[in-house]
Amino acid sequence: MIFNKCYQPVDKEIWQGRIDDTDDFTAFRWHQWIELIDLTDENLNPIVDKKQGFCFLGFRGDQGVKRNGGRPGAAKGPISIRRELANLPVRFDRETKLFDAGNISSSDASMEIQQEALALAIKKIIDLDLFPLLLGGGHEIALGHYNGLLKSKINNDQKPKIGIINFDAHFDLRPYPDGGNSGTMFRQIADQCQSSGIDYSYLAVGIQKCGNTVSLFKTADELGVDYILAEDITEFNILDILNKLDSYINQNDYIYLTICSDVFSSAFAPGVSSIQPLGIEPEIALNLIKHIMKSNKVISCDIAEVSPRFDLDNSTAKLAAIIIFAIINTLVGRE
């Protein structure tokens, strides 16, 4: 009931774009190759006619951003990102499949119900033997996303070690006496892990000193959170960063990659709730993301906080699309 309350199949009209050829696969764009699936279809079975399959799922909500005192608008992010994905060129072979499972929406549901529905959707996608790629939406997406991965992996391992790598200007470790929001998810996950006896593993990449209180840095230290400051992410010390990523990845069985668009400089990502004039450069971040994907431990990804309301020429949505393009092509060995 919770799932049906929040779930919406995607409208095929969103996946439209230029057509260079209708027969030559090497001239195809993503909108010509995408297949739509309905997660409420009881006849859905694991997708077997593929070498690798990826499934998009939108998170059309930003209640957490509003609760956090941020600028709402990210609820329309999934539509904006899909429009940029539609015209991307197909660089993989026919054995790689793309699917779109629709959206988790917050039309009449609370953020907490939306997060529960998202967790169920993630498990459904993984049960179909597909790699989830989530399009946000506020960064409160992370709590539902993590819990969905936990639901999926706990069947085989009662205490799965899922490491979280979060590209973000903020720790999102704030206390939540009045309920969760888009700045509390990783504190909530830490508390869940403690109550369940599961190891909590979290690495934040791109943290801004000006965006986090001293108390949040103390909380990060108390919880054993690893982090890399934005000011330390330069091309001159890239090897040190890659070594730190490798060390973290090796400590975990699985990796959940989540990207908050406000980690990037506002010159490249103006369409976010909290802009960062001195955020990290996308090209450096992209190289780090590709490196993480090549570990073969990443089981799911999301991109959050794309807010069309504040975007300029869809540049933030285009950046999100390019990152997704790189993730897929890296996983299929084309990067």
Features:
335 residues, alpha/beta, ten-stranded mixed β-sheet, 10 strands, 18% strand, globular
In brief, what are we looking at here?
With 335 residues, the protein is of the alpha/beta class.
Q: What summary fits the major beta sheet?
A: 10 strands, mixed
Oligomer: single chain
SSE sequence, one letter per element: HEHEEHHEHEHEHEHEHEHEH
Task: Sum up the overall morphology in one term.
Answer: globular
Helix tally equals: 11
The radius of gyration is 19 Å
Helix-and-strand structural type: alpha/beta
- Low-pLDDT ranges: none
Strand content: 15-25%
* Approximate helicity band: 25-40%
End-to-end separation in angstroms reads: 41 Å
The total count of strands amounts to 10
Mean pLDDT rating: 95
